[in-house]
Amino acid sequence: MRSTRLALLLLIGGVAAAQDPQPAPVDSATLAPAESRDPVLSVVVGPTRGPRVAVDVPAAVSVIDEQSLRLEEPASSFPSLLQRTPGVSAQETSPGQGSPFVRGLTGYRVLTLIDGVRVNGSFFRDGPNQYLAGIDPLMIGRVEVIRSQGSTLYGSDALGGVLGVYTRDPQRPADVDPESWWARPGSYVRVAVPLREGAELQVTPRIEVEGGRGPVSVIGGWDYVHFGDLETGEHRKTARNTAYSQTNGDLKLIYELDERDRLTFAFQRSDQRDVPRTHSTIFGESYRGTTVGSDLRRDLDQSRQLVYFQAETTDRGPFARVKANASVQRHYEQQTRIRGNGGRTRTGFEVWSLGAFLEAESDLPLPVDTTLSYGLDYYHDFIDSFETDRGTRRPRGALADDADYDLFGVYTRLEVHLSRVDLFAGTRYSLARIVARDVDPDPTDAFPFGRLVRTYDSVVGSGGVVLKLVDDPGGLLRHLNLVGSVNQGFRAPNVSDTTNFQPVQSTSFDSPNPNLDPERSLTLELGLKWEARHMKLNALSGQAFYSYTFLDEFMTRVPTGNTVQGLTEFVRQNVSDGSIQTLDGELELNPFVLVHALGGGDPGETPGALHGISLRARGTWTRGYLDAFVGGRPTKRHLSRANPARMQLALRWTEPTESMFWGEVELDLVRKQTRLAPGDVGDTQRIPPGGTPGYALWHLRLGANLLDERLRASVGLENVFDQDYRIHGSGTNGPGRRLVFAVQLRW
Predict the structure, then answer these.
(1) At a CB cut-off of 8 Å and minimum separation 6, what does 382 contact?
(2) Tens digit of pLDDT for each residue in 452-488?
(3) Which one of 94, 256, 262, 647 has the fewest beta carbons within 10 angstroms of its own beta carbon?
(4) How far apart are CA 699 and CA 427, in angstroms?
(5) CA 552 to CA 580: how far, in whole Å?
(6) What's the CA gap between 225 and 72, in Å, rounded?
(7) What is the mean pLDDT of residues 571-585?
(8) H or E, element range at 613
(9) What pLDDT is attached to residue 3?
(10) CA distances from 609 to 38, 282, 654 (A)
(11) CA–CA separation, 128 vs 436, rounded Å?
(12) pLDDT (0 to 100) of residue 505
């Protein structure tokens, strides 16, 4: 099968084209054109590691900007802000512990980057994990969600896609002299008010400041998150033991040496305290037949810090663009668990990650417009783990203690721009190495585990084409592009895969297995992107994609036949193959602008109030299969926790000339998910018998931009009819009827 796929890759792959490189380093929150926030005209970085207009790249990519994440869709956590993105479902084990599923995959099979720096570490585990909750939504300027590709440019883990987070840059006011001191303090607050007597508020206040002089500018902020116990729908009332708190801080300093060169220093920190894993405790609430846990307590403390230094330059000799980044990142986790019998366990780890990447772009001296992108990256993890069980100190925690993990990659990407066709091709070599010293969880028992040293490598490739069916900047239909791509994916086994040792539910446990191979995928994708404009207003824009992904040698839990203290032993093995099909897309239609244009209306005419009405639609359908180990052999089963079919419709009005006021009504339709993997059927605390019920949610939102947009405010009535619902795979229900206020003030 692999040889057939490689031949197909070489057949489709070619060379790639892109727009001319931008004249200055650009990868901050300021990329999107001010007059356009539609799905295909945003400038994106992730699909090519350089600024391109989304309509001209052969990738399914969606953009969430600062206005959306702060005011229009103010989210309580980073995973939840992705909930309205096509192809994405945000599972929440409990509030503060969310994990996005991108085209059916999650956890360490989706790569997350912050300003190009990997968040994924060698401690990431299979299935949903909570680590992305350590990314503060309020430091973000924009997010790019790239679906089903990314291994060629970014390396291991990008099987389901890439989540590109770009933090805010300081923005000097236009009326300030560049050589003068300037400062602009600001504040932001998000308040969720459950409409139930006695309910606790959920409050997120933030203070921030930006300023500078001459070539130096700085931006920073601090916020505190307090969430009381979650108030769910009309029948569930208060979800006990779901409250938690979190603090976040960030700082970014930019020194612009000249118009072409820029240095950046950034610092981020996030701390969560006593975040409960509610569904596994006696405080869990049964929903449609789910069981309640037996733990008396199960809380997580989690911390993430990141420091990086970055240098960028443009138009230097043969280089159109060069960027170099060096980073240090720390992840800390501690879980305190008190079982029903009173046994107390404290387990966790501390991971220090050193990282560096170098990327460049050059225009080649060829008869046709050709760009070559290339670079390398390297990350090294130092892991210390710990565990205390009933007062006894163990040699290690869930991960091997005193372990190191190296990940190195080098890539190249060629782009060629012809008159009506852009061609893309790229390749990457990746190398991963594990050195784990303290692997044995109990050196005194009869199951010895020696020191682990393993090396993995891989070569992957990708190719794509953009066929410009319509390219008419002066017409009504300005862009209509047919795009296609083929992308190989690669995920090297990490420290969690090879050394994991921990109980699973109440009947089994996982043992380390050093004899693992990389997971691989191949994605074929076909899509259409379109954009029509009239009177400088969006008339019709959107994108729609179909993808088919082959999954090879995926890891799954396999019983060894051993029983220890009444628990069945499992190990991970590469015995699962499978496939995922997806249909997803988004559309924005302004019917009155379109009718006006088709009727021959004057393009210079002042827009009327009706021209501010638009309809937005997002849709997702996923169908996946992956071998599960049943009856001693791999058997085809449904993909675990796959996204259910979903459609989101919003009718929106925006004041068409000055965009001072806006309002929308949204309907979120989610179908029942009955396609369950064996592990889903056994996950009785989170998934009801027979599957997770579907639901329909209505939301109302209003907003205003005042004082020259220095004061922005919004109010939303969410879950208008107070429905009981649960996002598939989550451990708690979603919020009931509530008001959400968001206010942003900048002086």
Answers:
(1) 351, 352, 353, 403, 404
(2) 999 999 999 999 999 999 999 888 999 999 999 999 9
(3) 647
(4) 44
(5) 12
(6) 19
(7) 93
(8) strand 613-630
(9) 36
(10) 19, 55, 9
(11) 24
(12) 61
Six-digit token string for 338? 């008190």
Sequence letter at residue 161 = G
Q: What is the 3-state secondary structure (H, E, C) of 70-117?
A: HHHCCCCCHHHHCCCCCCEEEEEEECCEEEEEECCECHHHEEEEECCE
- The first and second tokens of residue 514, run together, are 């050093």
Q: What is the pLDDT of residue 177?
A: 84
> What is the distance between the alpha carbons of residues 392 and 449, in angstroms, rounded to a whole number?
20
Distance of alpha carbon 235 from alpha carbon 279, whole angstroms: 17
CB of 556 within 8 A of CB of 628? yes
Task: With cut-offs at 50, 70 and 90, classify the pLDDT of residue 37.
Answer: low
438-439-441 Cα angle (round to 5) = 100
Q: Residue 222 and residue 238: Cα distance in Å, rounded?
A: 29
CB 65 within 8 A of CB 737: no
Give the residue carrying structure tokens 């950034």: 266
Are the beta carbons of 108 and 126 closer than 8 angstroms?
yes
Among the listed residues 120, 92, 89, the one whose alpha carbon sits nearest the alpha carbon of residue 107: 120
Question: Could you tell me where the DSSP H helices lie in 438-560?
Answer: 495-499
Rg (C-alpha) for the chain, rounded Å, is: 25
pLDDT score, position 513? 85
Is pLDDT of 15 > 70?
Answer: no
Least Cα distance to 308 among 349, 258, 350, 263 occurs for 263
% of residues, the chain, pLDDT over 70:
94
Q: Which residues contact 157 (CB under 8 A, 6 or more apart)?
A: 108, 109, 110, 111, 120, 124, 491
This prediction's pTM:
0.92
Q: How far apart are CA 38 and CA 416, in angstroms?
A: 26
Amino acid letter, residue 61? V
| Residue 49 and residue 458 in contact, taking contact as beta carbons nearer than 8 Å | no
Mean pLDDT along residues 193-216: 91
Distance CA 679, CA 640 (A): 7
Rounded-to-integer distance, Cα 92 and Cα 726, Å? 9
**Which of the four CATH numbers 2.40.170.20, 3.40.50.11600, 1.10.10.10, 3.40.50.720 does domain 2-216+241-746 have?**
2.40.170.20
Are the beta carbons of 409 and 429 closer than 8 angstroms? yes
Contact 366, 379 (CB under 8 A): no
% of the chain with per-residue pLDDT over 90: 70
- Residue from 303, 307, 308, 389 nearest 351 by CA: 303
Antiparallel, parallel or unpaired: β 695-706 and 661-670: antiparallel
Which tokens hold the place of 510? 């996982």
So what's the pLDDT on residue 512? Answer: 82
Query: How many Å apart are CA 523 and CA 48, to the nearest integer?
Result: 17
* pLDDT tens column, 402-432: 999 999 999 999 999 999 999 999 999 999 9
Distance of alpha carbon 740 from alpha carbon 726, whole angstroms:
20
Question: How many Å apart are CA 88 and CA 549, to the nearest integer?
Answer: 16
Tokens of 388: 């205390």
The answer, yes or no, to whether residue 227 has pLDDT greater than 70, is yes
Q: What pLDDT is stored for residue 448 in this prediction?
A: 77
